[in-house]
Design a protein that fits this description.
One of its GO terms (cellular component) is DnaA-Dps complex. This is DNA-binding ferritin-like protein (Oxidative damage protectant) DpsA. It holds the Pfam family Ferritin. Belongs to the Dps family. This protein is mostly helical. It has a single domain, classed as Ferritin, CATH 1.20.1260.10. The protein is built from 6 helices and no strands.
């Protein structure tokens, strides 16, 4: 029995939200890594490095998210099919234009931000400070990533 000051119903709901974040984060990791491998054009070097920085950070993040799910007493999802059912992030469909990659990753970063932020009311209600801290950190990183990607666009 888990007795950490958060009732079971709240733990289960928060874990479900974190599994959503895990699915989004892992899907974004895969897509960003694919774009890192496949980017071409005049911005190759800068995008290749930026994408590497972003997917490397995501690789570490998925572990933190999954471990928080486990600390709440739930099972962390760990399969492509489970992630595909939950995430709103679309797989790389063979995109070759750098600007399209930037736009897709920007949109995907914003998906992660919105889904992480949507979990806050429940986390606050449950007084789950540890998950709130994790969400705050994730939102800050994804907002910075979105800003960097947005800055590359000539709009």
């Amino acid at each position: 029995m888990i007795n950490i000051g958060i009732n079971q119903a709240h733990r289960e709901e928060i874990a479900a939200g974190l599994n959503q974040l895990l699915a989004d984060s892992y899907s974004l990791y895969l897509k960003t890594h694919s774009f890192h491998w496949n980017v071409t054009g005049p911005m190759f070097t800068s995008l290749h490095l930026l994408f590497e920085q972003q997917y490397t950070e995501l690789a570490l993040a998925v572990d933190l998210i999954a471990e928080r799910v486990r600390a709440l007493g739930a099972r962390a999802l760990g399969s492509y099919s489970a992630y595909a059912k939950l995430t709103e992030i679309h797989e790389d469909q063979g995109v070759t234009k750098a600007e399209t990659m930037i736009r897709e990753l920007l949109s995907d970063q914003e998906v992660v931000i919105r889904n992480a932020r949507a979990l806050y009311p429940l986390v606050s209600q449950a007084n789950d400070e540890a998950t709130a801290d994790l969400l705050t950190q994730r939102i800050q990183i994804h907002e910075k990533n979105a800003w960097m990607l947005r800055s590359l666009l000539s709009e």
